[in-house]
Design a protein that fits this description.
Elements (H helix, E strand, L loop, with lengths): L21 E3 L5 E3 H10 L18 E2 L1 H13 L17 H13 L4 H12 L3 H9 L2 H11 L4 H11 L3 H9 L4 H11 L2 H16 L3 H5 L3 H13 L3 H14 L3 H9 L2 H11 L3 H14 L3 H9 L3 H7 L6 H17 L3 H9 L2 H11 L3 H13 L12 H6 L3
Antiparallel strand pairs: 1-2, 1-3
Length: 397
């Protein structure tokens, strides 16, 4: 294939590969369907790649004449190892999808079969998925999930893979039915796969929620998020749960709900086992937020390995993780510095690690926090050989 010169007008201007399903966009330019769909729908561009003109429509018209020419060229060059491109299946029309949705609504006996057919349609082109959204598939699937019957798992599977638009997710969160509450039974009692899909859908939906919805999230949501983290269903589900907590915890009352749900102890357990950079950063960032409350600090100190594992992550993950770890220690040392805590910090190597931060850290804010921690308790830690003499000499009498 590489040795044969392909006519330039047979190549997609985006991928520079032989077009298998050439389509025409609103500007009259032709691209391979897979490439232009990725450009428009996945990368969310609204211009023609070649002309840079704004596209008034994202409709894609099959270029049958060019596709036949490409097929004929492939046939002529078959002796050189060129395989004839197959005739692509046409995108499914919105009317066909509406027919399937109505059938699923009117007959519970064929509902699962209709959902499976809709799923096979969604696994095709991006155009098929857009047709599904245009036909109201997102709201229809949400209504099935709300009933929590035998078709629930199939509907949730399809809804997740449909990759609903921001507009559809916003509508789900603004509806009176409350999409978050709809997913609660699945999170509590669903299969492992359904629970994973549910937490990932919940994360996407809350991303489109308004501040009031975020601030008033119910305690049950935090309980189920913590259960997902504790059960470690999958790496993808755990990351979705961590990111969802990140979206919810900037509000003070939500931090208390997370702490009461047992988030701090579960996060420490995850941190003990975590070797992945992004997961460790998320966990430390969450612990930093939760330790800004007295209850959060008390929970961290209740865990026998809390201080030790936070300190251990300094310099072992990333600069972001080191900064968050020092922030956590700063909150502990400034607001919960009992003699037992300060002695434990000395025994498990926290003090030595903070002294190392002064020597090798590049972030000036992180250095300043570490220095303040050491300064605040220099007299108590004075017997530690790592405490800089300058801190002792500058400590007020």
């Amino acid at each position: 294939m590489d040795e044969i010169e392909i006519p330039s007008h047979f190549l997609c201007p985006i991928s520079m590969q032989l077009m298998r399903d050439p389509v025409i966009v609103a500007t009259g330019m032709t691209y391979d369907r897979e490439s232009i769909e990725k450009w428009l729908f996945t990368c969310k561009n609204s211009t023609c790649p070649m002309t840079k003109q704004e596209l008034q429509s994202t409709d894609l018209t099959p270029n049958h004449n060019l596709r036949r020419l490409i097929q004929a060229w492939c046939t002529l060059n078959s002796s050189n190892g060129i395989e004839r491109i197959p005739t692509p299946k046409p995108p499914v029309e919105k009317s066909q999808i509406l027919k399937l949705i109505n059938e699923a609504k009117n007959s519970t006996n064929t509902q699962i079969k209709c959902l499976q057919r809709l799923r096979s349609i969604s696994e095709g082109s991006q155009s098929n998925r857009k047709s599904l959204e245009a036909a109201g598939a997102v709201e229809f699937l949400a209504s099935i999930i709300e009933k929590n019957d035998e078709a629930c798992d199939e509907a949730l599977n399809l809804l997740y893979h449909l990759d609903a638009s921001d507009a559809d997710l916003k509508k789900l969160m603004s509806d009176d039915g409350n999409f978050a509450e709809t997913l609660m039974p699945v999170l509590k009692c669903g299969s492992c796969q359904s629970r994973a899909y549910a937490i990932m859908m919940l994360k996407s939906a809350f991303r489109m929620a308004d501040p009031v919805q975020l601030m008033t999230a119910k305690p049950e949501i935090f309980i189920e998020i913590v259960h997902i983290l504790k059960d470690q269903i999958s790496q993808q589900a755990s990351k979705a749960a961590l990111k969802l907590l990140m979206d919810l915890c900037p509000w003070g009352r939500n931090r208390i709900k997370a702490i009461e749900a047992g988030a701090v102890l579960v996060l420490i357990e995850l941190l003990l086992d975590s070797s992945e950079r992004r997961a460790s950063e998320l966990i430390l960032t969450l612990l930093d937020q939760l330790c800004r409350t007295a209850d959060g600090r008390a929970e961290l100190l209740k865990h026998g390995a809390g201080l030790a594992i936070v300190s251990k992550k300094i310099f072992r993950v990333s600069q972001v993780a080191s900064d968050r770890a020092v922030r956590i220690l700063f909150s502990i040392c400034k607001y919960s510095p009992t003699s037992r805590v300060l002695q434990e910090m000395l025994q498990v190597g926290v003090v030595a690690k903070l002294c190392l931060v002064l020597q090798v850290e590049n972030n000036q804010k992180t250095i300043a926090r570490a220095k303040e921690i050491l300064y605040l308790h220099a007299r108590i830690w004075k017997d530690s050989p790592c405490i800089p003499p300058s801190l002792l000499s500058s400590y007020p009498a």
